[in-house]
Target: DUF5716 domain-containing protein
Amino acid sequence: MEEKRTLLVGMDIGEQVTQISCFDFTTYEPVAIGRMIHGKREYEIPTALTYVPGSGEWYWIDEMQGDQTGQIRLQHLLLDVAKSDTIEVGMQKLDSYQVLKRYLVKVLSLLTEYYPDEMIKKLVITLDEKEERLVSYLLKIANELGMPKDTLVVQNHKQSYMYYAISQPKELWSNNVGLFELTQKGLWYSQIDINRKREPYIIGVTKKNLTQDLDWDKIGQEEEMLSYAFLNAAQTALHKQYVTTIYVTGKGFEGEWSNEALKELCMGRRIFRGQNLFTHGACYAARELSGMGKLDHCLFLDDEMVASNIYIRTYKDATDHEELLVKAGTPWKEVDGSVDVIPDQEDEIQIVVQDVLKHETKAHMLSLSGFSKRENKTTRFTIRIRFANRTNCIVTLKDNGFGEICAASNRVWERHIQL
Model:
């Protein structure tokens, strides 16, 4: 049977566990993908592996039983990979890239049990933060596994949270939405604010660390102290905020203390607790980014994303045309757009910046006076757009000549536009 690229997959790779989900077109919701281990189906997969040097085999870290002498146990796989390109365990040295590749292949192979004749159409991997080494490794792995370009998208937890919250029934995000995360590292609060003045709705998120004023080590496992500390921090974060839906996630909320604490926080609000928010959010993102979503009326923005559409006006196929180079909502580090143009009686090129937050449109004129003078329509320029940071746009103009008619000067002109 011919394999089809239909699967929309979300994966949350955490320091301790990894979760993977796939979008179900019958329920229109993500469904969890699990592994069979010691006769049980588990959906929280340890982010860890065991390597057996003698055989070269790789196993789940909790898969091997009996004598484990000589085995290499990578219990902090994600942290070790992010830290260095080499992982040292005793006298052994392992290549970080190969370790991550082995792990990712094992996790993705779980899909074949559920969908043996289908392949991935869009894969969104979410991380707490997008560490540069991890992102580059993941993109390289996807390429080596034969995934078409742009199949893989890597996003942070804030972005997955936005996709999750706004993919829920609209009554759950008719007002602002809050998220509390409680882990061994501490407590964080993220709030989604929605600007509904006009479409597309602008969806933004802010994240606060609530741990800094609390001595979590001293609180320890004393449930009464933990409940008091959480409620005090939560009520402070929610003070004067119009938040009617709250999500809570993280292993810290699995204790009995959280039941009564969340009941108290529930006054006037709806609260949902679970451990799969980020993998499901990544799965909803896969649906949207594959072009099969329903959130065209929303624009997601955070501090990693460009808040402007950038385009140039051209004449194409006998009509005026706006060539989009950057779409608002794109992470600035991922922007690298280009287009070739041939000026027709023009001595400048117009770049248009449309700020979706300020609702302002500005035109920036790029002069061609520094390039060689040639007959009309005998010079082809490449316009390339990148970013130095979220608000500093780099526009590069390169003279490519015109085939055999006019040799390229290869002269490059660069300008920075402050958004």
